[in-house]
Amino acid sequence: MSPMPGNARVYVIDDDPAMRDSLDFLLGTAGFAVMLFDSASQFLQALPELGFGCVLTDVRMPGTDGIELLRQMRSAASRLPTIVMTGHGDIPLAVEAMKLGAADFVEKPFEDERLIGMIGSILRQAVESDRTSREQTALVSRIASLSPRERQVLDGLVAGLSNKMIAQEYDISPRTVEVYRANLMTKMQASNISELVKLAIRSGVLDT
């Protein structure tokens, strides 16, 4: 299995030119698209324009270090997963980095295959998380498009009520409930009542 979902990039941040070159070669050979930065400040300037990818940063750098980088990425609401490279004995810094949102950390010197596997795994998790987030947003949007009466009928269906019971609850005819059910199926993009109820529950905006 390829370690790279799509054509995601790895953004390498390290003030050591030799380390940058080494990582550029290693990750490029593994199939990743790599962008190099010699400082956290240079990366932060480019951050608003950067596409999906994974950040690989040293923790100890002059100026803005890896910890401050994570703080500023959090302030900017960046969703790029970040791996922090630490030196021997930097476990306290690694723990602090994790508390600030780092996806993982790796100690130098590291095994090439372990780093490649870690980046691939984190990128796949980020892709899945983003897909789930977009699906959830779409579901909530569909719920928001429902009329008050359609929402009532949906609430009834989620509660396990029959058409007749829903009709009695809201003083409408069973035939009218069927019409609203049909509208619900269309708006919620559900192919059957079971899928409709599952989507409604998964949206998280209805009581289960």
From TrEMBL:
4-aspartylphosphate carried by residues: D58
Highest rank taxon of the organism: Bacteria
PROSITE patterns (UniProt xref): HTH_LUXR_1, HTH_LUXR_2, RESPONSE_REGULATORY
Keyword DNA-binding among record annotations: yes
Coiled coil: none
InterPro entries: CheY-like_superfamily, Sig_transdc_resp-reg_C-effctor, Sig_transdc_resp-reg_receiver, Tscrpt_reg_LuxR_C, WH-like_DNA-bd_sf
Keywords per UniProt: DNA-binding, Phosphoprotein, Transcription, Transcription regulation
Domain Response regulatory: 9-123
Record-annotated membrane-spanning stretches: none
CDD domains tied to this protein: LuxR_C_like, REC_FixJ
PANTHER family: DNA-BINDING TRANSCRIPTIONAL ACTIVATOR DEVR_DOSR (PTHR44688:SF16)
Name used for this protein in its record: Two-component system response regulator FixJ
